[in-house]
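Would you mind writing out the residues of a protein together with its fold in token form for me to study?
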Amino acid sequence: MSAPPSGVPPLRVLEALGIGLSPTGEVTEAVTSEGAYYLEQVTITETSEDECEYEEIPDDNFSIPEGEEDLEKAIHIIGEQARDMHILEQQTILPARNVMQEAIEDFLCNFLIKMGMTRTLDCFQAEWYELIQKKGTDFKGLGNVPDVYSQVMLLETENKNLKKELKHFKQAAEKAKEELLSTQKERDFHRMHHKRIVQEKNKLIADLKGLKLHYASYEPTIRVLHEKHHALLKEKMLTSLERDRAVGKISGLQATLKNIDIGHIQVPVIQDSYESASITRESGDRAGHSCEKENSSEGPTQKSLREAREEVGYKTKMKNEKKQVSSETGGAACSDLEPPGSIVMHPCKDYLISCSEDRLWKMVGLPQGNVLLTGSGHTDWLSGCCFHPSGSKLATSSGDSTIKLWDLTKGECTLTLEGHNHAVWSCTWHSCGDFVASASLDMTSKIWDVNSERCRYTLYGHTDSVNSIEFFPFSNILLTASADKTLSVWDARTGKCEQSLYGHMHSVNDATFTPRGHIIASCDARGVTKLWDFRKLIPIVSIDVGPSSGNEVNFDPSGRVLAQASANGIIHLLDLKSGQIHKLVGHESEVHSVVFSHLGENLYSGGSDGTIRLWI
């Protein structure tokens, strides 16, 4: 191959398989099976960027000298720095390089080389150079090869992006399909649930209609029973009136026969001791002779008098016998003129406090039973009392809707807590001595802050009278018993009900903890006593000693014996270990309260017969 004629511009390096010209003008070489092809080797030099001179920016200290702090100067200096930086950036900007498109002749040469058509290439180059030498062809109109490859690359890139988007959309469609299936399943589940609820509602409506019809069938029977009840009440009232009338006649006859003396006949006299009186007759010949008329016939008046004397004599005899029995079994200290409503033991000393219906409370020394202190101030009967943990103070609850705090060293009332709308049945001290809790007939309980003298919380939840209240030892847990047949456990810090215990069928009169606090005992108006597991809040055992009402329950210090005060005058002692029940009989009427001594050896009870009895 001959070299190109003189005056012809050097041809660019043809790109063969592995031979090409880089954008920067550097020649890349590749080795093929036939070797490298050159028309003319030309070295293209390009100004290196390393030979460019850059203006060095001096690192001046632009800090403001000390003592010359001036805002305007600082702003001026910052502005000058910004202008300098802008000028330097404009000077250092390099012009962008234009990517030259490939010429037509280069494209044809490269194509022939790649296809291995060397003879065609030689012919093309010979004719091409001849045309160039003749200069008879205008090469400007030929232009460059259209950048089809660039367009193909762009199309391929766009195709790839579209494929990626398509894949993304397919994934999104699959995810949407899964969500659609999940939503359809949830829809089906809720639809079935709705159908089941509708069925249950229809069933409840049908049951409610049946119950209404059933209740309506009982209304005539209830109406008849009400009428019978009213008729019996009327008969009872008439019987009471007849009885009162008969008693009035008997009393009048007794007064008349006492003052009338006919034919030297002395009428029988009813003595104060209600013993049988003798009838004596005096005759003229046998003066002073007396005889009993046992075999003589009795009239209606004499018969009524005899029956009245026998009834009164029997009651007196029974009363004397019971007092004798109680004195033999333990004795009775009649320290109250009125029935004691509640009795409590001093936490440390052998003192006993009793509250009574005469609006007084009394401190009694044990075992002598002498009254040491008496407190008055309430305007109605006293229902309960409780010692301060230190034993120096006393809290009393009353029917006048108040709670009073007493200083036992002075015997004076120090604070009156008012807030209940009805009678207060019970009160209790917290173990810290700063709070008092009360239970009332107004269906609420209250927690009082003694230091601030105000109500901290009012506990709502019971639907009937709250009869008893007690703090769990050394904690913020509060236990209440109510006439709505439930027990409730409260958090005294928040004033909220934590748990309600159901099981009693009648009004719950009292509830208390064991000294260890793991068992709760409660009694109701039908004499049923229940034991509850406080940790699990479930019933353990139920003891029925009714039908007389159980007024109060109390544990001994060991927690093994439970005493219940009953309305029939009997005290029931339950041994929790053996399960045996013992009865203490001695009170003539209802027993209101029971309490054990400090060592548990003795038991004290207060009843409506006006006595406090000691059981050994």
